[in-house]
Amino acid sequence: GENVEQHPSTLSVQEGDSAVIKCTYSDSASNYFPWYKQELGKRPQLIIDIRSNVGEKKDQRIAVTLNKTAKHFSLHITETQPEDSAVYFCAASIGISNAGKSTFGDGTTLTVKP
Amino acid sequence: DVKVTQSSRYLVKRTGEKVFLECVQDMDHENMFWYRQDPGLGLRLIYFSYDVKMKEKGDIPEGYSVSREKKERFSLILESASTNQTSMYLCASTLTGIANEQYFGPGTRLTVT
């Protein structure tokens, strides 16, 4: 089955700096790559996603890049703010053929210091 | 707005008890999932269901069973709770399609003593 590895497990940055979280996946059939943010005590929520026919997607301060050849994708957060502090999960999914099942990375705890 | 609710936020049970965790979604999603979340281990899939009365094992199904009698409701059952099942349990749902986000419930913190 699919295996998703996520690095680093913890990341600490100063406010205003950039943060990058990287994930690799094993199944070349995966075609959907969402990123979820989980604030302390809250449920995970989607912040950005990318499909396999796109190499990069940006939404304000966050962006995701995908390299299908190398089977890795990354989350980039620029101009970090204290409210970006959370656990971030990447995931990979084969989509319609697998009931929308996603395999998740182990998570990255991001701390943004004021 | 999609809403996924879980029957309890916190639950304390004794070893050997039968435990029911219930999840309800209100957006007519076909697919529903149960995960457990432990520090450093991410979200591990226990079971999922793609239709009423249909279920499939996830990555860690041992010690758990599920029930889906109605489309909006997906129950997780611990037949005989053990201390190693102390965890945060998250339910999620999604539409069938090429690729769709999962909508999560608020989670149930289960402690087995």
Reconstruct the topology from this structure.
The complex is a heterodimer of chains A (114) and B (113).
Chain A lengths: L3 E4 L2 E5 L4 E7 L6 E7 L6 E7 L4 E4 L2 E6 L4 E6 L8 E8 L8 E3 L3 E6 L1
Parallel strand pairs in A: 2-11
Antiparallel strand pairs in A: 1-3, 3-8, 4-5, 4-9, 6-7, 7-8, 9-10, 9-11
Chain B lengths: L3 E3 L3 E4 L5 E7 L5 E8 L3 E10 L2 E4 L6 E7 L2 E6 L8 E8 L8 E2 L3 E5 L1
Parallel strand pairs in B: 2-11
Antiparallel strand pairs in B: 1-3, 3-8, 4-5, 4-9, 5-6, 7-8, 9-10, 9-11
Low-confidence stretches of chain A: none
Distance between the termini of chain A: 41 Å
Helix content of chain B: under 10%
Q: Which class best fits the helix and strand makeup of chain A?
A: mainly beta
Total count of helical runs of at least 4 residues of chain A: 0
| Major sheet attributes of chain B | 7 strands, mixed
Largest binding interface between chains: A-B, 27 and 29 residues
Residue-averaged pLDDT of chain A, rounded?
94
% residues in beta strands of chain A: over 45%
Coarse shape of chain B = globular
* Range of strand content of chain B: over 45%
| Total count of strands of chain A | 11
Shape descriptor of chain A reads globular
Provide the low-confidence segments of chain B as ranges. Answer: none
Counting DSSP H or I runs of 4 or more residues, the number of helices of chain B is 0
Major sheet summary line of chain A: 6 strands, mixed
The CA-CA distance between the termini of chain B, in Å, is 37 Å
